[in-house]
Amino acid sequence: MPIWLSNQIMRAFNKRDRRQIRLLNDCWFFYYNRQWTNGTSSQLPRSKS
């Protein structure tokens, strides 16, 4: 998961903003599924944790 997306999700959880959490969750699954279906699953970006 990109760091910027992780930061936004954490901010939304801290604010208890359910609408933002759902939106970011949908964005993540869209991004993840798009990468997976393009055959680049081995090249998925990883967070630097």
Automatic annotation (TrEMBL):
Q: Which InterPro entries match?
A: CmpA (IPR047764)
- One Pfam family linked to the record: spore_CmpA
| Tree of life domain | Bacteria
Full protein name: Cortex morphogenetic protein CmpA
- Per the UniProt record, the source organism is Paenibacillus lutimineralis
